[in-house]
Amino acid sequence: MKTTNVIVVVLAMAVVLLHGAEAVLYIVGDDLGWAIPPGGAATYAAWAAEHSFVVNDELEFDFAVGEQDLALVTKDDYDSCNTADPLLLFQEAVTLQFIASDTFYFTSTLAGHCTKGQKIAIYIGAALPPSPSPVPSPTPCPSASSADDALTAKFVSHKIMAKGN
Predict the structure, then answer these.
(1) Cα–Cα distances in Å, from 139 out to 17, 51, 104, 142?
(2) Beta partners for 108?
(3) 20-56 pLDDT, tens per residue?
(4) Handedness of CA 48, 139, 94, 75 (dihedral sign)
(5) I need a surface site. Which of 57, 106, 125, 132 has the fewest CB within 10 A?
(6) SS3 of the chain
(7) C-alpha distances in angstroms, 90 versus 3, 46, 59, 130?
């Protein structure tokens, strides 16, 4: 993992704290899901451009275990399709809830998938005005070292349960 790009992921307690926040759930790629897109990288770029994501929104990356994966990478690695050292790697479908404004870069680490267009840059904008009952801010991960104290959590992940469970 690249030490200059450490991302502190909030523990399960943050999920509880954020539960009351208004959020929109997006399925990345809609019916296509997370796969090699037939139209290349323009497919996911167009999909992202059709939406305005804000803090607390959730993005579901839906794919079959073993057929795809999902990697969070740096912008440089995204641009060059370098998947050798992802910041985070998910081996099964996942829903990510974004709790900070930033641009996030995702791709697949499977051979050839990124170069065939299975990558997406997602900009998460500032939160909408607070709802009538404000939600407490999440606290930093208690295991963070003093060097990481200035970092804030960027997103939390939720495992997707198989349909029918």
Answers:
(1) 9, 28, 21, 8
(2) none
(3) 457 899 999 999 999 999 999 999 999 999 999 999 9
(4) positive
(5) 132
(6) CCHHHCCECCCHHHHHHHCCCCCCEEECCHHHCCCCCCCCHHHHHHHHHCCCEECCCEEEECCCECCECEEEECHHHHHHCCCCCCCEEECCCEEEEECCCEEEEEECCCCCCCCCCCEEEEEEECCCCCCCCCCCCCCCCCCCCHHHCCCCECEEEEECCCCCC
(7) 19, 24, 14, 31
Q: Are 9 and 152 in contact (CB under 8 A)?
A: no
pLDDT by residue (tens digit) across 142-163? 433 333 433 344 656 555 444 4
pTM of the model: 0.69
Unique residue bearing structure tokens 């399709």: 81
Residues 65-90 have pLDDT tens digits of 999 999 999 999 999 999 999 999 99
The token duo for 100 is 């900070």
| Structural tokens at position 80 | 């060059």
Distances (CA, A) of 87 to 69, 92, 105, 145: 13, 16, 10, 18
